[in-house]
């Protein structure tokens, strides 16, 4: 009988009836017979398991984690990251990750599992994780399918050219993005080789990478994509062509736009002045559809005055203007953008014209036109569209322009919708305007002010410059939302200082 079976028999009969068998290799133990039996059985169990031969083929060895070339964050910053991941001011996690990556640091290896698990349930967090996780983060994600989202979610798809042949859609998009930044022609050639075999959602995802390194060399391919069977593919192709200076697409749009907006000389009070005569398209044809102008644009609205489908025509006008090169108007009117946006508009209040120009300035990233529309005073009833234009301005102008916009809409229901469109950080004049709005609302609280304070604090705790905390000290009269905002700003201030030390 084997030693294991002897121990099993002793256990079944009980140590009162049978002494445990002697196991010479067992260490000398103390205690009663039952304890000695259990100690020896544990030793035998370990021996049995250690000697077991795995069934089937031996598993492939796991590749070693790659060597990191980026330093880990300072010790204090690592400790704060653990606090954030445990739930303390969790909303600042994206800022911590982005700040760490921007300063050339990576996440500590021991924190990666908790961080990757957090990204598993929060898609918005994944790009920030990818930037700060380092090479070991990608390596760890390859060992767990639940974390596979990280592979290809950043700038590095985690592989070489074979990624394009065998990778997931996310990894192939990441690979194509990286290639578009360095070798855009090679990226286009790769996509052309497989274009006809790719499903429509993948074609759209791959085509979106063309925003990197976009040039006239891509024109023929994008013109072909205008006739793709996938709606999203056609829309992306038209949007990319609209951003491409010198394209045939832009020429076609300019021809349509010139038929819609015509300069007209008028004399008023003895003064000759240029007006803009507006004539929206009367019909929608196949050429307009091919160029990405939908028959029922999302901006269409009900007819005004009962005089036919004016709303639909106005929406077509907006779509055409949004896709027309803005140089069309400086050439036509021979005036700078600021003077053009201030020209009077005949037979219309100019709203559709200015919204179309605003969309074009945003798409074409034209700072001069964005500045003209923000300062020209012609879109006072479209504060949200103006807020979108702030991102086009140079960094040195953005805060002041945003502050002007905030002061303009202060006290109106548009304020929160405008601020939602203004990304952080809120510094300088913008931070001062937000602090002024908060303190003024807190000093005369009404039910409406309470809602404004709560929602504004929710936005400000992630975007407001942390140094603004000292200007928000309202003493015992401070609403709870403001007190919590001050605590969050202080937490962020310490967090950012730790990442710079």
Characterization of this structure:
It contains 26 helices and three strands. With 501 residues, the chain is mostly helical. Among the domains are: 3-47, no CATH class; 75-150, no CATH class; 162-244; 423-501. The radius of gyration is 33 Å and the shape is elongated. The N and C termini lie far apart (68 Å). Mean pLDDT is 85; it is low at 301-310.
Structural Rg: 33 Å
Distance between the termini: 68 Å
* Topology order in helix (H) and strand (E) letters: HHHHHHHHHHHHHHEEHHHHEHHHHHHHH
Number of helix segments?
26
Average residue pLDDT: 85
Question: How is the topology of this model organized?
Answer:
Blueprint: H1 3-13, H2 33-50, H3 75-85, H4 93-102, H5 112-120, H6 126-132, H7 134-141, H8 162-166, H9 169-182, H10 184-194, H11 200-207, H12 219-225, H13 231-242, H14 248-260, E1 261-268, E2 271-278, H15 286-290, H16 310-322, H17 327-333, H18 337-341, E3 345-346, H19 351-364, H20 367-375, H21 383-389, H22 395-409, H23 414-420, H24 428-443, H25 447-463, H26 480-500
Parallel strand pairs: 2-3
Antiparallel strand pairs: 1-2
Helix pairs in contact: 1-2, 4-6, 9-10, 11-13, 12-13, 16-19, 19-20, 19-21, 21-23, 22-24, 24-25, 25-26
């Amino acid at each position: 009988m084997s030693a294991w079976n002897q121990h099993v028999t002793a256990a079944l009969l009980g140590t009162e009836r049978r002494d445990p068998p002697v196991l010479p290799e067992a260490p000398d133990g103390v205690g009663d017979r039952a304890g000695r039996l259990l100690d020896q059985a544990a030793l035998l169990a370990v021996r049995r398991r250690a000697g077991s031969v795995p069934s089937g083929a031996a598993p492939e060895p796991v590749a070693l984690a790659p060597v990191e070339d980026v330093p880990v964050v300072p010790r204090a910053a690592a400790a704060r990251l653990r606090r954030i991941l445990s739930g303390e001011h969790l909303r600042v996690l994206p800022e911590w990750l982005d700040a760490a990556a921007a300063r050339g640091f990576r996440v500590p290896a021991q924190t990666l599992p908790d961080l990757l698990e957090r990204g598993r349930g929060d898609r918005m967090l994944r790009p920030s994780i990818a930037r700060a996780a380092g090479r070991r983060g990608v390596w760890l994600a390859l060992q767990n399918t639940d974390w596979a989202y990280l592979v290809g979610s950043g700038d590095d798809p985690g592989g070489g050219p074979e990624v394009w042949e065998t990778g997931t859609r996310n990894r192939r998009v990441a690979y194509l993005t990286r290639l578009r930044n360095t070798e855009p022609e090679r990226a286009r050639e790769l996509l052309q080789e497989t274009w006809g075999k790719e499903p429509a959602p993948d074609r759209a995802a791959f085509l979106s990478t063309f925003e990197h390194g976009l040039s006239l060399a891509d024109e023929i391919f994008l013109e072909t994509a205008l006739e793709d069977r996938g709606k999203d593919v056609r829309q992306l192709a038209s949007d990319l062509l609209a951003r491409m200076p010198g394209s045939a697409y832009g020429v076609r749009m300019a021809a349509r736009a010139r038929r819609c907006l015509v300069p007209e000389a008028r004399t008023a009070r003895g003064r000759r002045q240029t007006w803009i005569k507006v004539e929206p398209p009367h019909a929608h044809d196949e050429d307009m559809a091919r160029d990405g102008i939908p028959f029922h644009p999302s901006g269409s609205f009900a007819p005004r005055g009962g005089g036919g489908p004016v709303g639909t025509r106005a929406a077509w006008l907006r779509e055409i203007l949004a896709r027309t090169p803005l140089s069309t108007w400086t050439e036509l009117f021979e005036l700078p953008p600021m003077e053009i946006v201030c020209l009077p508009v005949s037979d219309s209040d100019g709203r559709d014209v200015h919204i179309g120009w605003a969309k074009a300035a945003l798409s074409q990233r034209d700072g001069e036109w964005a500045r003209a529309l923000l300062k020209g005073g012609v879109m006072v009833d479209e504060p949200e569209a103006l807020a979108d234009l702030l991102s086009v301005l140079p960094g040195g102008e953005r805060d002041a322009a945003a502050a002007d916009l905030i002061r303009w809409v202060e006290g109106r229901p548009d304020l929160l919708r405008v601020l939602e469109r203004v990304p952080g950080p809120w510094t300088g004049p913008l931070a001062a305007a937000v602090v002024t709005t908060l303190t003024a609302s807190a000093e005369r609280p009404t039910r409406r002010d309470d809602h404004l304070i709560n929602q504004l604090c929710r936005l400000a705790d992630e975007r407001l410059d942390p140094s603004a905390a000292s200007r928000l000290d309202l003493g015992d009269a401070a609403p709870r939302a403001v007190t919590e905002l001050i605590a969050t700003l202080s937490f962020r201030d310490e967090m950012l200082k730790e990442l710079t030390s």
